[in-house]
Design a protein that fits this description.
By secondary structure, this protein is mainly alpha-helical. The protein contains 3 helices and no strands. The chain crosses the membrane at residues 21-41, 47-65.
């Protein structure tokens, strides 16, 4: 490695990081599957009512993000 080399060596991911990523992906997959099931059971209202219910959640997340 030379003094002008700015590339850092890649860091290995830990088991805890991998487990966290898998939990997030599983949560998203379960949420999407639940939403798809509601559309299959109730049709169009099953599509837009969960989206309407998530509006306050998205609004709250925007406030949290903007507050830093």
């Amino acid at each position: 490695m030379t003094a002008t080399d700015t590339h850092a060596a890649p860091q290995a991911t830990t088991d805890a990081e991998t487990i966290t990523v898998l939990r997030i992906l599983l949560s998203v997959a379960v949420f999407v599957a639940g939403w798809a099931t509601s559309v299959a059971l109730w049709g169009v209202p099953g599509l837009y009512i969960p989206a309407l219910a998530l509006v306050p959640v998205a609004w709250g997340m925007l406030i949290v993000i903007s507050r830093g």
